[in-house]
Amino acid sequence: MAVKIMIPTPLRQYVGKRDQVEVEAKTVAEALSKLAAEYSELRRHLYTEEGKLRSFVNIYLGDEDIRLLQREQTPLHENDVLSIVPSIAGGTALRCICS
Amino acid sequence: MANPGRTPYPRPQSVPNSVLLHDGLQAGVQRHIEPPALHFEGKKEMATLTLTPTEQLSKDEILRYSRHLIMPEVGMEGQLKLKKAKVLCIGAGGLGSPLALYLAAAGVGRLGIVDFDVVDFTNLQRQVIHTTADVGKPKLTSAKESILELNPNVEVVTYETRLTSENALDLLKDYDIIVDGTDNFPTRYLVNDACVLLGKPNVYGSIFRFEGQVSVFDARKGPCYRCLYPEPPPPGLVPSCAEGGVLGVLPGIVGCIQAMEAIKLIIGQGQPLIGRLLVYDALSIKFRELKLRKNPECPVCGAQPTITRLIDYEQFCGIRGEEHTPVITGIREITAREVKKMMDEKKPFVLIDVREPHEFQICRIPGSKLIPLGEVPKRMNELNSADEMVVYCRSGQRSARAVDLLMKAGFRKVHNLGGGILAWSDQVDPSVPKY
Hints:
The complex is a heterodimer.
Chain A: E1 2-6, E2 20-24, H1 28-38, H2 40-46, E3 57-61, E4 64-65, E5 81-86
Parallel strand pairs in A: 1-5
Antiparallel strand pairs in A: 1-2, 3-4, 3-5
Helix pairs in contact in A: 1-2
Chain B: H1 59-64, H2 66-69, H3 75-84, E1 86-90, H4 96-106, E2 110-114, H5 139-150, E3 155-159, H6 168-172, E4 177-180, H7 185-198, E5 202-208, E6 211-217, H8 225-228, H9 249-267, E7 276-281, E8 286-291, H10 313-316, E9 333-334, H11 336-344, E10 350-353, H12 357-362, E11 368-370, H13 376-379, E12 389-392, H14 397-408, E13 414-417, H15 420-427
Parallel strand pairs in B: 1-2, 1-4, 2-3, 4-5, 9-13, 10-11, 10-12, 12-13
Antiparallel strand pairs in B: 5-6, 6-7, 7-8
């Protein structure tokens, strides 16, 4: 399934400044994994060293949080839009996820 | 860690002494008047009614708020609700500036402001409640002056203090609505938890560079901040001092939306952002709305809360004191003066600048080679490990990371310029601008 992943401004520098990336994937897990594989600098912002999705980064399918769907196993359909929504707190603390 | 010996804060069943808020919550204030059959035309006298001072508008106020009064969605009833409302603004900075000004302009009766900071020159790019003449003054002094010049009817109560677990509940309890204009994670979690414990709505707004988020967290009816983000990012996840920066007008827009949400809650009109997260991308001018759901297992607002008192939020966010990034040990530092001495004595060394190209445009130390930090791993082959090297950035933190990377790759003669180009400006060449 061709899906679009919306990239939030703090992470755009890792994807060549693009605001969205298209990938082919059947589940959310596959889509994010392909994104991280294509843009390796992005990986550590999305995943812990153990390979788990970071808790302060929320993923939305359309306007619904995937935690309320089937999390990373949520199936995707053609032209679905995934959004990465990180926790932000003003101009200070986000240096933590932006190098 | 929760304070030992403190009893859990009782969760209120109703909201005492509050104005009637959005959705038919219990109103503690008795209203002595029927919905108004009064009309305002030009400067006609108001019919006299037996009203207490906070339940009527003066002639001046009627003229001042006329553009509200002639709207059926506001009218006298709505304006009086604004006059009786007590709103607490946490922060008088980027978000707090437009927020406080617009709430004051709208006629909110009491505005509390919490801030312990002083106006800095770099604030003026966005903190429009302060002026050039206010640089060096406490933000509260400057904010209060601006508000009273705009609308002397507002009662401005200032709290020149850091919001902490010890004072938050007392400080927040006398207000109807809390608006979060802070810029750090510990305070956001503190404000959230205090609002949940007190049963107060928390109008949330946050920004970064070109993106903003707004929501209304009211745990009595919907999710709280922890339902959205159970945990903050650990500091130093990617150690860096790269200043995020922010487009000045962005907090202006987000702060105004927060003011709008607060006003909607007060006058009971429209649909507030409860259960919704508004995400604003300024670059593409996109507003997106994402659904927020209450997490039934939320530790603070869920069915079985495990957090029933305020905790140590610095510890929760993994921060100790003012340190936000981990200290990289084992690297050699050199001072700006020592580098200048090496230059004067014509000692051979390579000076490497690991900032971004746009920073290089602002200022640089003469003779430096630019290799942005992100490119250091790829471009190490441009460097000769036999050379003495000094690495710098803006304040010394990114360059520390670069030195660490170089040393791990086998470079031995590398030094970090302590304090970065800021220190160079202070100690060696004041003509180098600071930013």
